[in-house]
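Comment thread on ticket #2218

A.B. wrote:
> Attaching the input chain for the structure job we discussed in standup.
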Amino acid sequence: MAQATKSSPDAVQALLERLHHVTVGDPITHDRMVIFPIFPDADSAGRTALEYQTLERAIAAGSVQVTERGSATVPELSLQNSGQTMVLIYDGEEIIGGQQNRVVNTTFLVPAAATFDLPVSCVEQGRWHTTSRTFFSGESAYYGLRAAKHKQVTASLRASGRPISNQSEIWEEVAELEATTGSFSPTSSMHEVYQSRASDLGTYQEHFPYVPGAVGLIVALNGRVAGGDFFDQPGTAEALWQKLVRSYALDALTGEPGEAVTREQAVQVLERAQNARYEAYPSLALGQDVRFEGEGVVGGGLVYEETPVHVNLFCEDGERRASSRRAAAQRRPRRLGVYAEPDVEYNQE
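C.D. wrote:
> Ran it. Output below, let me know if you need it in another format.
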């Protein structure tokens, strides 16, 4: 049975109900990747939607600005929301610019007219100089990185209540990605790996357009269910769909073809998540950061006013496939340290 071991059992119950009240669509297949669109069932489809903007749209509209903090540090950025609506920043969203490119450690919903210290992880080890004073929304962290970071952040929440990653392991993960994709960046930049494989990733995007009405997707890579993401409303899923497709496809490119994956296997992942052990922690912004661990699956989500805004899933089978890159990565010498000013603080727990 699911069990809340920290705060807010209402948040846990809301996430459980969300997992129960979705349906898995028919598979769409291309090369080594399968997508199962996720739809709300009849009991949940008519609920009043929350009003917020995605970070990318808020930055484009000029209502949000992300900058380095006054005393720049690797694990935090400053976000100023001067708009009149909340802003959604999802787990793994890349923010490019400033002194280094970063990815967001977990999903946040930032209030209107608020300033927020945003917990992040660096995905560009070899740069510590300004390319632009403000940041922009980039890619989504690829599956293998998000899966590793999820476990690190969960452990940190349990220990300190703070969503902090292990920065050294994040840098190692990006270096492994470079090695196995045959990419090279002078600053070990995840963003440049995406750019180097733009043509291949574009082909995946063409084969996996947004499915009208879907609130998310479950994805299989190389013959194994890897994980999934879904949101509180179709508009959010549509806005982030192509970034998520690219993020999973980057892992698909580094694997070998596998057996066909069935819809029943995707459904079983949701069922295992419903029977998992749950914890809930107060978010540093709005709502509750809910985490779960079950048989072969881990994940979590942000719940605000009993609405799961974003839920993500990571399957152990998919993680094993992602971690198989590490042997190839040993052929590349590790880049040590970063080019940083002496007074810059780092989190390398």
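A.B. wrote:
> Thanks. Noting for the ticket: Residues 9-327 form one domain.
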